[in-house]
Structure formats: structure tokens, C-alpha cells
Amino acid sequence: MDQIADRVLVAGTGIAGAASAEALLDTGRTVVVYDRTDSERLRELESRGAGVAAAEEFDPSLLEGVEQVVVSPGFPPGHPLAKAAAERGIETYSEPELAWRLRGPEAPRWLAVTGTNGKTTTTTMLAAMLKAAGLRTAALGNIGEPLVHAANGPYDVLAVELSSQQLHWSRLLAPTAGAMLNLAADHLSWHGGFDAYSKAKTAVWRGQAAVFNRDDPAVAALAEHANARSTAFTLGEPEPGAFGVALGHLVDYTGGSPVPICSVDEVRPAGAHNVANALAAAALASHVGVGPDAVARAVRDYSPEPHRNVVVATVPTGEGAGIRWVDDSKASNPHAAAAALAAYDPVVWIAGGQLKGVDVSDLVERFASRMRAAVLIGVDRAEIADAFARHAPSVPLVVLDGEDDSVMTDVVTAAAAHARPGDTVLLSPAAASYDMFDSYAHRGRAFAAAIGQTLGMNTAGGDA
């Protein structure tokens, strides 16, 4: 608690920001809350005793007398607030870091997950494994309730999803074990480049144990420099001390001999990347004493999160094979979209949104042979169309100019016109959603709703 200053400025009044301000007020700190716009939440914090400021442009005078700043993940290092704090030598950190500093002597242990893709699936798999072992747990971080609410219980172990932004704004946070799943170009405009993005991710290994993906060259190279005991996972046969796959089974080889956990076919959602996620979760769980039996029970009972490679409808065609419609809206970068595109052939691909400074040329070139057609939407649709023009000019394109969720009706109509019996229509955008939707979940729901309205199908694309 003495790692938290007496006077703190909290930047942002989203879920993490408001929770941070409330937690600091509860400890008797003097809190100033800044946001770009006035809001009911800002006024609620003011009624609780916080000083508040709302302005489109940040006024550096707000930092007078401030000893620390807690920022929401939306504030990049180049934001005027962050730069002004750095110039004044004011320590700046994130809500997960605040939660770490709020921990008391009986606080739950943390197992943390980061990576470009698969974080939420792995974190929720991990929570299921911990629960199967009889531990009180919750999946938190980028998901669930704010970490500051759970800093001191009522849990034994927390499964914590951490983004590169949250890790960038951390200093002392050191989980019992941390896993890095994979690394690919993402959030480059926020971090300023791939090297800075990768460096931020390595903060997950600040604790006692580093879990890493041996099959990802970038991750494996970083793991060589981790100052923590390492545990690898691989889709190949594991070496002693690692987790892997042998004879169609997930295997724990951290003991004297390899121990089969469960069949690869029992992992859901299906796909090699989700087998890797399950191995990462199992490796993390092993660091708090969870054994193969509990891991196997959790894998068999696990319910996949929505908008992650989920079949929302299969439309009969009268010619045998129907047309599958798949919601993979969570795929907000090319690395995630590649995992989905690799699973289907032929595909009518629905893509587009905010590319976040990432090039999609390699993705288009790699999977062009699988594509029946592509339907492009979003603010960066022209960049994707240009990649097709250069690398896959024979793939038919439909480029739609809609600016909100109503575009999904046209998307479904266009995709249906190109799909043939046995095809998969795949919403795997390779881009963020905030140009046209409130979230990737909103994008997925709009897709499912448009399928229902346009094709007259019952869909399973909600968030239940």
C-alpha cells in the first residue's frame, strides 16, 4: 500500500478508470479524475470526493501536486498527459498495476496471460482448470470485473488476461507465472513499433515463472532472456519439463515421465491454435499445483467464449453440403484471422475495420487460393483492397461503404451471392471494430442478426 502515493490523478472514466478512482478513494487517497468529456460517471466520482476535470485538450496544470498517474489503456505513451507526466518525473501506471499494489498479505496469487491472440480463450480455460482443482478463482484483467475489486479476495488464484498496453503501464506487477502465447504485429501505432510492443509483452515474465510458446520464433527468442524459471509448450512432442502433444493427446512432461492429459479432439474451439491455448493454460495451472486430472476435466467441460470461430448458421442449399456462416469477430488482427482462414476452404472472407498500422499483404497472399470472394468493410477497406489488387487480383471483391452496423445486411447479401455449396462464409476481420461498432462483440452480433434477417435462419451468434 505504501507503493501508492497520497495524491493520484486517474485518467479515463471507463470501467478500469472508474474502478481505480473508487479504489483509491476507499483507501483515503486524494484523487483527481480527468476525462475528455463530462459524464454521469465523472459526476458520481465527484460526489464521492474526487476532484474532476473534463476537457478535450489535457491541461498540464492538472498535474500540479500529483505524485502518481493511473491511466486507462487507451492512453498511449505519446498522449499529452503521459508525456507531461514523464517530463515531471511522475510515475504512471495502469489499473492492473494498481490492483497489484493494493494486494495485502493474504491476497490471491496471479497467473497471467498475454500474447497477440488467444488471450481470452486461454485465460478462461485457465480459470476452468483452477476451478476443476477446487480453487476459488475468476478470469479477470481485460475481461470480467476490474482487478482492483479482487486484489484481496475472495479468491485463491486469479487468471489474469493482460494486454500489451496494460503491461506497458506496469512497473512492479509480477505474477506467480506468466504466459506469452504468440507474437505478431498489432497495436503498432499505440506502441510506436514492433520492438516496443514485444518489450511490453515481456513484462508478463517479471515473476517467478515464464511460460512460453516454443513454436513461435519471436516468443522463443524473447524467452531466452527471461529472468524466470521457464516452462515451454509446443504442438510437437514435448521435451522434459514442457507441455506438448504426443499420439493425439495433450501431454504433461514436467515430471519424470510424460503424462497424457486428454485427447486433442476434446479441445474446443477446434483448431491447432486452441490446442496451443489449452497447453499454455495447463502449463500455467501446473505452477499452482493443478494436475493432469483437473486439467482434463476442465478441457472436456469448457464452453468457448462467443465470437471466436463459432458457427452461427448452416444454410441448406439443396445440393448436399450447406453453407457455413462463421463468426470470428474477435480476430482483430491478421495473425488471428490467419488461424481462422487456415481452418476453412473454400471461403468467402468478410474483412475490414481499423488495421492499427498493420499490413495485411502477407495474409491476402497466403490465403488467396482458398478464397471464393472477399467482402470488405471499414475505414481501412481500401488498404485491404489494394493488397488484393497486388497479390490476388483474380479474387472477386465487394467493397462496401457503410459507416455503422447497418452495413451487415449488405455484407450478408453480398457474401450469400458468392457462396457455393460447401463454402464457409467467414467473418474474421483482421482489424479492430471501433470505426463502425461498439466492440468486436457488437460486430459479431450484428453479423448474426443480419444472417437471421436476410436468410431467415436461426442463429447462435449471441453472447450467451
Q: SSE layout and pairings?
A:
Layout: E1 7-11, H1 15-26, E2 30-35, H2 40-47, E3 51-54, E4 68-71, H3 80-87, E5 91-93, H4 95-102, E6 109-114, H5 119-132, E7 137-141, E8 157-161, H6 164-168, E9 177-180, H7 188-191, H8 194-201, E10 209-213, H9 217-223, E11 229-233, E12 242-246, E13 249-253, E14 259-263, H10 272-286, H11 292-301, E15 310-315, E16 323-327, H12 334-341, E17 347-351, H13 361-367, E18 371-376, H14 381-391, E19 397-399, H15 407-418, E20 424-427, H16 440-455
Notes on the protein architecture:
This protein is an alpha/beta fold. It has 3 domains: 87 residues, 3-Layer(aba) Sandwich (Rossmann fold); 200 residues, 3-Layer(aba) Sandwich (UDP-N-acetylmuramoyl-L-alanine:D-glutamate ligase); 146 residues, Mur ligase, C-terminal domain (Protein-Tyrosine Phosphatase, Chain A, Alpha-Beta Complex). 33% of the residues lie in helices and 21% in strands. The protein is built from 16 helices and 20 strands. The chain has a 6-stranded parallel sheet with strand order 7-8-6-9-10-11, sandwiched between helices. Helix 14 links the parallel strand 18 and strand 19. Helix 5 packs across helix 11 and helix 15 packs across helix 16. It starts with 6 loop residues before the first strand and ends in a 9-residue tail after the last helix. The model has no long low-confidence stretch (mean pLDDT 93).
Shape: globular
CATH class call of the largest domain: Alpha Beta
Number of DSSP E strands: 20
Tell me the domain tally.
Answer: 3
Q: Uncertain regions: pLDDT < 50 for 5+ in a row?
A: none
CATH architecture of the largest domain: 3-Layer(aba) Sandwich
CATH H level, superfamily name of the largest domain = Mur-like, catalytic domain
Put simply, the count of helices is: 16
Helical fraction? 25-40%
Q: Gyration radius, to the nearest Å?
A: 23 Å
The N- and C-terminal alpha carbons lie at a distance of: 38 Å
